[in-house]
Amino acid sequence: MALSSCLLVALGFLTAEVTLSAGSTGCVARNFGHGSVVCECNSTYCDSVGSVTLPPLGQYSSYLTSMAGSRLEAGQGRVQVNSTGAALRLTIVPYQKYQKIRGFGGAMTDAAAINILSLSAGAQDQLLRQYFSPEGISYSVVRVPMASCDFSTRAYTYADTPGDYNLDHFNLAPEDIKMKIPLLQRAQALSPRPLSLLASAWSAPAWMKTNDALIGKGSLKGKPGGKVHKTWAHYYIRFLEEYAKYNLTFWALTTGNEPSAGRMTNYSFQALGFTPEEQRDWVALDLGPALHASSRPHTHILILDDNRLLLPYWAKVVLSDIHAGRYIHGVAVHWYFDHIVPAEISLGTTHHLYPEYYLFGTEACSGFLPTDRGVKLGSWDRAEHYAHDILEDLNHYVVGWTDWNLALDQTGGPNWVKNFVDSPVVVDAHRDVFYKQPTFYSMAHFSKFLWEGSQRVGVSASRENRPGILCLHQTRWFSGSHLTQQVIISAPV
What we know:
Layout: E1 6-13, E2 29-31, E3 37-41, E4 59-66, E5 73-78, E6 90-100, E7 103-107, H1 110-117, H2 121-132, E8 141-146, H3 174-190, E9 196-201, H4 227-244, E10 250-254, H5 276-292, E11 300-307, H6 313-319, H7 322-325, E12 330-334, H8 343-353, E13 358-363, E14 368-369, E15 372-373, H9 380-394, E16 398-405, E17 408-409, E18 425-428, E19 433-436, H10 438-447, E20 455-461, E21 470-479, E22 482-490
Parallel strand pairs: 7-8, 7-16, 8-9, 9-10, 10-11, 11-12, 12-13, 13-16, 17-18
Antiparallel strand pairs: 1-4, 1-22, 2-3, 3-19, 4-5, 6-20, 14-15, 18-19, 20-21, 21-22
């Protein structure tokens, strides 16, 4: 389904009267010829929608982002109750209750940290505020790679000493201690609520793997329940414990980034292969018991952390096992190649089979395809793609959506294997500025308004959509005691 040239979020709240506070400041627009504009920010200025609260009883607030250059442009109006006019009529069905929102966010990769820290102190603060403060777009989720990934400048783990089964030589890297941890602490200080930190490992140390390398086709040596598998589970616990020393507590961890990649011959960067059967048994025999017995027993375990085209099969194998299932909280999905398998077949079927486990989006980015590679400053098509995928996920029981790198440079890196992609924020360190892409505002239309604990409920429309106005998302969300009417539509400008 194609979007047209505008994204509009209309929020109507039909309960207790409160006020709206939106001190909006405008976008400094720059056009790089990719369909729309970016908003340029520096150490002293950045556009901001301001903090947002619920509007008065019977009114709605709208926030418009358009191809022409509007960015979260605020408006207000009055809800017409029982109108008989020609307008599209939406009827809330509050007894139809679906999933509750966990949150939205991005990843603090090594590359993201390098780019943020390449700016002056003032510009760094502006960038972090844009993501994490109430005046910004209120990100609440941050994915943190455990050791290196392709968006690093080198390949490393925290236990590179061969045969160190007791992890006596386990140490966080300088990338953690000098870059990611300080930035996460600053982000947490800006957020009014505790951030939901999510840990994902790309590869076990080479000496634990069948191919004796961080990259390429390789899995853990031995079998689940064996010495290597238990050491790998203990590695996760040590990571959580080391970060806790810096007052950073993780809400969840995944069983490993894209396990299917580690089963591909000549795969070019860090990976660890698992079949669903191997993942099931490792959780049941090693990771689950180790986490349960640790000082962090309430940390959630999310399986898969790979593309949704692997569902529902992967979930059936892992979650049908009572020994593994008792340790697991959710299923993590990536957005790549979503067009191959319809959402209802993958996400919907998985939810209906295992409704007690939530679905959570853990990675997405534009610019990953060989035919459409890297950064495109101001790309409106990519903003539409983000919005469409998030809406589709929300309508198929997903409780949150996590973008990939929080910030990249103008080449889409650094990336040690030159796997360059795009990011909602692109840094130009030479000018000490950063650009907020249209995808930044796509994320904002969700992260800013769908607060943690909001619940999707039902809605019906009076008629089919007419030409000129395309209703993409017809759901309702409860936020605390407030009924939130949310309609995200696209219309020509």
